[in-house]
Amino acid sequence: MATNTGGLGTPPSYEVSVRGLIRSFGPKGVLNGVDLDIAPGEFVALLGPSGCGKSTLLRALAGLDRDVRGSGVVKVPEQVSVVFQDSRLLPWDSVLGNVTLGLRDHDADARGRRALAEVGLAGREKAWPHELSGGEQQRVALARSLVREPRLLLADEPFGALDALTRLKMHALLKELVAAHQPAVLLVTHDVDEAITLADRVIVLQDGRVALERVAGAGVDHYSLRGELLAALGVHAAA
Amino acid sequence: MTTTAARRSTTVTAPPFGGGHGTHPGTVVEPHLDPNLSTRPDIRPSSRRLGPGRRRRFAGLVGPAALILLWVAASATGLLDPRILSEPWTVVSTAGELIADGRLQENLAISAQRAGLGLFFGIVVGAVLAVLSGLSRVGESLIDGPVQIKRAIPGLALIPLLILWFGIDETMKVLTITLGVFVPIYLQTHAGLRGIDLRYVELAQTVGLSRAGFIRRVVLPGALPGFFLGLRFAVTGAWVSLVVVEQINSTSGIGYMMELARTYGQTNIIVLGLAVYGVLGLLSDAAVRLLERKALSWQRTLAG
């Protein structure tokens, strides 16, 4: 569906291209030579145990690691949006003000309203962030990233702090939004089911390296993929 | 479970050190007596709130009013010698006389002007210095040290030098107040600014905010709670500095009026001056708090 459609002979043009990425805090390497390509519109989920470097990789792509030691080549598009685990809304700004933060065009407000309507929050433009539920706050954060029409959407465990039911609703919403806006997506998560449900491709990061890479999505046997990913993460499900 | 009647009797006098089986003073649990539902008393523990409860209008006036009542009572019963502290009604009639011949308004106007000007300049200087020092390392190394030194020097100690430099006219008075005001504004705004969550700085980077946009949308609103805390100190400080400059060398103002009264032993005028300072302090603090509530309505706090 949204995988690389470049035919034979034409070199594939990737939205994201990472080569030999190395990052270290102190003597211990966090990323030890990561290679990663993401095609335009492709949804990649990044799995891995805590401390495997998945957030560090995402921060490198977001340009948030300027004071970190390391090397490697990172090619990302101009328009990158980030969704954090916390909604990270400015508490002193209205919902609409948060969505349009940093937009400089004249129709920023109109676009912000449309984005809020898209995430099902029409009419809440003037509310303060603390007046919203956790799920609603995260929807505002989604609206804030998508109003910028990003070519790449980086999401760092965006649903990690939500309850299970809200999380399922957010999965459906994210799928819908990604289908409508077609950004390339890198979703960092530790939820194997979330990765399988949402992504076209799942990558397992271990000790700062890509340990496993599998195609997910339609036509893939969820159950066996789930077992394989869990095994790669060191969890051996009882037969 | 205590009965309602027993509980009511304990609501006025709070047991010392929160004793009395943990009953919270001021909360009365009404038993559930709807016969259709149940005849057992409703024993919801949820009725005990930990917050201070709802805000009530004019609640801030209760304390000052009680103080005045105490004064009236002590004077009326003769407990308070009028040579020590004038009776409230004498002070009221003195106020009437001074208003009739225009002296009170005149002195009040000049005092308010001095305090207002000093406050204005102090707020501007303190806030600008705080932003400069909070946002750049160079600014901090240049500004923070001298402000801390100024903080350690009492305002009174500077007056001889200020008189030598600026004479005894209005400039010296306003400057003294400004110097007293800018320090708390600087300290609290700077602390508020430095306390802004780094996560918001990251956010500003990812949404591509410009430097100016970052200051306007993140830094200034984030530092506002600190600024208002500083403002409340500053307003009080402005009145204190005012008393100092007006009682040391002045030919006008409330402080001068009181100093003159001291020479003639007119306790009633001195007490009137004190009352005026008190009312001014109370009113200005209420004004700042009102402003704070309006400007910080995004906050969810116990203050409500």
Automatic annotation (TrEMBL), chain A:
Residues 16-232 form the ABC transporter domain. Keywords: ATP-binding, Cell membrane, Membrane, Nucleotide-binding, Translocase, Transport. GO terms for molecular function: ATP binding; ATP hydrolysis activity. It comes from the Bacteria. Gene3D superfamilies: P-loop containing nucleotide triphosphate hydrolases. PANTHER family: ALIPHATIC SULFONATES IMPORT ATP-BINDING PROTEIN SSUB, TAURINE IMPORT ATP-BINDING PROTEIN-RELATED. This is ABC transporter ATP-binding protein. It comes from Paenarthrobacter nitroguajacolicus (Arthrobacter nitroguajacolicus).
From TrEMBL, chain B:
Keywords: Cell membrane, Membrane, Transmembrane, Transmembrane helix, Transport. Residues 1-16 have a biased composition (Low complexity). InterPro entries: MetI-like (IPR000515), MetI-like_sf (IPR035906). The chain crosses the membrane at residues 58-80, 117-139, 151-168, 174-193, 214-235, 269-291. One of its GO terms (biological process) is alkanesulfonate transmembrane transport. It is found in: Cell membrane. Belongs to the binding-protein-dependent transport system permease family. It is a multi-pass membrane protein. Residues 1-51 are annotated as: Disordered. It comes from Paenarthrobacter nitroguajacolicus. Gene3D superfamilies: MetI-like (1.10.3720.10). Residues 104-292 form the ABC transmembrane type-1 domain. It holds the Pfam family BPD_transp_1. The keyword Membrane applies. It comes from the Bacteria. This is ABC transporter permease. CDD domains: TM_PBP2. GO terms for cellular component: plasma membrane.
